[in-house]
Prior knowledge:
mainly beta
Amino acid sequence: MIMRKFIRILLLLIVSTAFFSCNDKDEKEPVVEYFIRATVNGEAVYFSDQNTLWSNALHYEEQHEFNIYGSIGEIIGITIQMLDNQPIAPGIYSGLAETDTHFEGVRIIYTDDLNNYITDANEPNGMVEITELTQTEIRGTFSGVLVNLNKTQHLTITNGQFFVRREN
């Protein structure tokens, strides 16, 4: 009789422990993984270091700017900029033009080892679509053709996607 009570109490403890531990796991916040990924000259590039992925919004005089940053170690880095005379909002930004008071469009900067590439100001070919913009995150797609600083080599970025936290 004592043995049966002991087994029932033991079973009750095991079941209740399993039940309550499952509930604790279900209530935890999901882990958010930020990223920037793209195909660069035909090769997949994936920025996933959570410490180097971030974005910020800037405003000075008539220029509004939204920057997205990522890096892979100290060798590969990317900056995606949307520029306008209005606050940056969900939508499509493309090209790059300078007015009397501000820039409008997209500038992409890509660094690979000692090679630096940027959107060609003479033939700007870049596009960013912001699909989600909140106080804490930004999500969207991007593409573009960049040139190195001496304009002798091109870098083509396709299938770009980003989901990054906002610093401000």
